[in-house]
Design a protein that fits this description.
Layout (H helix, E strand, L loop, with lengths): L7 H37 L9 H4 L1 E6 L2 E6 L7 H6 L9 H8 L1 H18 L1
Length: about 120
């Protein structure tokens, strides 16, 4: 007879160890590269007419311990939200959302790569 014994306390300790190391490296290896890709795509692919380049430069990224986000810095181009969300007189150009959607494959690849690394290092 073959028996397989699993010690739940040992499994829990291993998962806790994995979770504690996961957050910092995940931000560095997954979140930041994905946000950077979204930022680059948003700066390049849009429907608005570029005049000064301030709106494209206002696409910024920020990360913290819980993740990060891409945003339009209103100090650099205070009209960015109106271009992105539209007004009565013009249609929205939701280039941030479009960029995030177009980089979904990049996110999948980064997550897959990070999971492989975590399993290998575990």
């Amino acid at each position: 007879m073959i028996n397989v014994r699993i010690d739940s306390a040992e499994v829990e300790a291993s998962l806790n160890k994995l979770a504690s190391t996961c957050s910092q490296t995940t931000i560095r290896n997954v979140v930041y590269p994905y946000l950077s890709a979204v930022q680059t795509t948003a700066r390049r692919r849009h429907r608005y007419t570029r005049r000064t380049g301030r709106l494209a430069e206002s696409v910024q990224i920020s990360t913290d311990q819980k993740g990060g986000y891409v945003y339009l810095d209103s100090a650099m181009a205070n009209y960015g939200k109106y271009v992105h969300d539209g007004q009565r007189s013009w249609a929205p150009d939701q280039f941030l959302y479009d960029a995030a959607m177009s980089e979904e494959k990049t996110l999948e690849v980064l997550i897959e790569r990070e999971l492989d690394r975590m399993v290998r290092d575990f």
